[in-house]
Amino acid sequence: RSDTIGNDFLDPAKALDHEFTAKSQAIMARRGHFIDSLGICMFIAGVEFTHVAETLSAITGWNFTWQECAEAGERIMNMMRSFNVRCGHTRADNCLSPRILEAPIDGPAKGRSIAEKFDEMVSIYYGMMGWDDNGKPLPKTLKRLGLEKVAKELAR
Hints:
Number of strands: 0
Oligomer: single chain
Strand content: under 5%
């Protein structure tokens, strides 16, 4: 699994690359879920994650690295997904509004749609997340995140 997307993250040419987009989403979702857990504004996207960790460290008196913050976000994502899987959520439930799948009528993406690549994007995302083909977190992913009890529960 690769957790880096390099300096290409803000490259507009990558915006229509389905593989890059799926990988980017898997990586950035860790940050987003961690930010959500802090109860602060989600629109701090321009703030470097190291700054978020340093600010949290200053507020709490604990020493957080951005990697620890990202892992906490990943843990949150896997707890949420595990809960949803236990409630019957499957790959089929990962769908988008038909409107999002429509090709734009103008702009740089005019006439281009992700519809034909969406299933492949979901597979890439699941792989990056350490989930199986149906979106169920793998036992090794849960164990790596210290969620052994959750892994045992999902194994039932």
